[in-house]
Amino acid sequence: MVFVSAEEAKPKVPHKNGRVCLSCGATEASQWRGPGGNYCSVGKCKTEAKEASERMRNTAAPLAEQVTALKSEVHELHEQVDALDTKVEKQEARLEEQEEALAAMRRHVAHLAHQCSFQRNGACDVMNDRAGHKRQALADLPPRIQLPR
Questions:
Q1: Is 65 or 94 the better-scoring residue by pLDDT?
Q2: Beta carbons within 10 angstroms of residue 19's beta carbon
Q3: Phi, psi of 127 (to 5 degrees)
Q4: CA-based angle 115:116:120, to the nearest 5?
Q5: Which of 23, 28, 39, 46 is most buried, with most CB under 10 Å away?
Q6: Over the stretch 22-80, which tens digit does the pLDDT of each residue have?
Q7: pLDDT over 80 at 148, yes or no
Q8: Quick check: helix, strand or coil at residue 29?
Q9: pTM score, two decimals?
C-alpha cells in the first residue's frame, strides 16, 4: 500500500452539481467517480463506481439500439405524415374542383328550370291559341266524341 502525504493529496471538493455520494453519502471528495460522478473516491465507493460504470456499459448497447430503432421509426412516421399531408392537399384540391362543378351544375339546372317554365307557359299560350282555331275538317264533328279505350 502506498501512502500519500497530506501535502500531495488532492483537496476534497464538493460535487459540481451539489450531489452526495450514492454509496456513503459524502458531500466532499478528492475525486468524483462513476456515471455522472455520483460516487466519491473512498475504497468501497470506488468499487461501486466501477460496477455502476460496467452496468452502464452493458446497458448502453441495448439503449443505443433502442435509440436507433426509435429514430428510424420517427423517420418513417415523418414520411407517413408527409404522405398524408400530400393526400390531404390533393383531396382538398379535388373537393374544390367538385364544388366548382357542383355550382356550375346548379346554375345549369336553374337555367334549365327557368327555360322549362318559360316554355311551359309559352306552350300553354300556343295550345290556347290553337283551341280557338280548330281545323275546318274537325269543325263539323260533334263537340265531344267518346272514343273507346
A1: 94
A2: 14
A3: -65, -40
A4: 120
A5: 39
A6: 888 888 888 888 887 888 888 888 888 888 888 887 776 677 788 899 999 999 999 99
A7: no
A8: strand
A9: 0.37
Q: Of 19, 23, 28, which is closest to residue 48 (Cα–Cα)?
A: 23
Q: Report the distance separating Cα 59 and Cα 52, nearest Å.
A: 10
Taking the CA atoms of 49, 23, 47 and 33 in sequence, report the sign of the dihedral they define.
positive
Phi, then psi, of 29 in degrees rounded to 5: -150, 155
Residues in the chain: 149
Higher-pLDDT residue of 92 and 27 is 92
* 37 contact partners, CB below 8 Å, separation of at least 6: 15, 16, 17, 19
How many whole angstroms separate alpha carbon 99 and alpha carbon 14? 72
Cα–Cα distance for residue pair 84/91, rounded to 1 Å: 10
Q: Which residue type does 70 have?
A: L
Instruction: Quote the CA–CA distance of 50 and 39 in Å, as a whole number.
Output: 9
Q: How many Cα atoms within 13 Å fall on the side-chain side of residue 43?
A: 1
Q: How far apart are CA 145 and CA 135, in angstroms?
A: 16
Reported as a pLDDT band with limits 50, 70 and 90, residue 91 is very high
Find residue 28's DSSP bridge partners.
14
